[in-house]
Amino acid sequence: MMFKSKIKRRLAQPSGTLFVGLAVACTLMALPQSWQISMRDAVTALLRPGQRAALQVRDVTASTSAWLTAHFNVTARLTQAEAELKRLCDENERLAAELAIARAEQASLAATEDDATEEADSLLKAHCVPARVLGRQGRAFLARHHLLDVGTGDGVECEDFVVDRPALIDRGQDAPVVAGQLVLAGHRVYGKVVESGKRTSRVCGVCEPGYRDLVAIGSVSGPQGLLEGTGEELARIRLVENTQPVAVDDLVYTTSGAGVVAVPLVCGRVVRVEQSTGAAHWDIWMEPAVATIPQRVAVLSVQLR
Q1: Which of 35, 53, 165, 182 could covalently link to 300 via disulfide, CB atoms 3.0 to 4.6 Å apart?
Q2: For residues 42 and 21, what is the distance between their CA atoms, to the nearest angstrom?
Q3: Residue 32: enclosing H or E segment and its boundaries?
Q4: pTM exceeds 0.70
Q5: What's the CA dihedral at 11, 12, 16, 20 to 10 degrees?
Q6: Contact in structure between 251 and 218 (CB atoms under 8 Å)
Q7: Is 302 exposed, middle or buried (0-12, 13-18, 19+ CB in 10 A)?
Q8: At what angle do helices 2-12 and 14-30 cross, to 10 degrees?
Q9: CA-to-CA distance for 236 and 217, rounded, in angstroms?
Q10: Cβ contacts of residue 169 below 8 Å, gap of 6+?
Q11: Residue-wise pLDDT tens for the chain (305 aa)?
Q12: Cα 27 to Cα 227: distance, rounded to the nearest angstrom
C-alpha cells in the first residue's frame, strides 16, 4: 500500500506526468503501423463529434458577435441622428421666427411709405435718440469717478449702497430721455427706460422683473394682454381671454407706439400657450425678439409736430 501511494504521489508531480507521457509515446511508436493507423482512425472518429460541435459553436458565436456589433452601431447612429434632428428642428424653429419677424418688418416699412402723407398731418411724431449700451469698462469708469445716473431728486442719499444695475445707456435727461420710453433695436423692443439721470439712463429688458407693457398678439389689432417680465428667459402675457385666438409662433407687438409709429414694433413671439383648469384666461409665454443686450439702441421719444 505504501508503495502504491508513493507511486501515485510521484505520478501526480509534473515530472511523473511527463514520464508517463513519454512512456506512452514510445509504446505507440513501437506498435506496428497498421495498429497506429487503426488507433488514429478510432481516436479521430471519437473526437469528430466534439470538433463539429466546437465548429458550430464558433460559427454561432461569430454570427452573434457580428449581429451585436451591427446592432450597437445602428443604435449609436440612430441616437446621433435623433440628436442631430432635434438640433436641426430647434434651428429651423429659430430661423422661422427670425423670418417671420423680418417679414413683419418689411411689411411695416412698406406700410410706412404708404402712410407718409398721413403722418405729415398727424399731431405727434416719433423721434429716436441713438444710444450705446455701456459695458463693463464704461461702468467701471463711472464707478471710479463716482458718477451715477441718479441724484437726490430720485431719493439717493449719502452712504446709500450702490449695486450693479442691468443695462445702462449713455443718454440721459439732456438727450432728452425720460422714464417710460421704449428702447429699440431696429424695429424690435429691447425694453424700457426705468430711470433717467443727467447723462445716463437705466433700461429694464422685456424679460426682467418689473417690466410691463400692453401688447397685441398676432397683429397690431389682435388680442391684447399685459406683458410682464419674469426674470427668466421667457416673459409672460396675462389677461388674454381664452376665447381669443392665440397660437404658438404668433408675433407679439407693443401698443405703446400706436398712433405715433407707423412701423409695428415687435416684442417677441409666442412659444407656449396653456390654460389652467377653470381659468378664464390663457397662460402665454413669449420669447423676446432681442434675446441679448445689443451694443446700440434707440430710445423712442414722442414730440409735437
Answers
A1: 182
A2: 20
A3: none
A4: no
A5: 60
A6: yes
A7: middle
A8: 90
A9: 12
A10: 131, 132, 133, 134, 177, 183, 200, 201, 203, 297, 299
A11: 555 565 556 555 666 566 666 666 676 666 666 666 666 667 677 767 777 777 787 877 877 877 877 777 778 788 888 888 888 877 776 666 666 666 655 655 554 444 444 444 555 566 677 777 776 665 565 555 444 444 455 444 443 333 344 578 878 888 788 888 999 888 889 999 998 888 888 899 999 999 999 999 998 889 999 999 999 999 999 999 999 999 999 999 999 877 677 778 899 999 999 988 888 999 999 999 998 888 888 888 776 66
A12: 103
The b/e string for 25-54 (b: 16+ C-beta within 10 A; e otherwise) is: eeeeeeeeeeeeeeeeeeeeeeeeeeeeee
Report the distance separating Cα 207 and Cα 107, nearest Å. 26
Task: Give the position of cell 511523473.
Answer: 16
Residue keyed to cell 441713438:
130
Task: Measure the CA–CA gap between 83 and 87, rounded to whole angstroms.
Answer: 6
Residues whose CB is less than 8 angstroms from the CB of residue 162 and which lie 6 or more positions away in sequence, other chains included:
143, 148
For the record, the C-alpha cell of 110 comes out as 412698406
| CA distance linking residue 94 with residue 40, whole number of Å | 79
Is the bond into 223 cis (omega within 30 degrees of 0)?
A: no
Cell of 296: 446700440
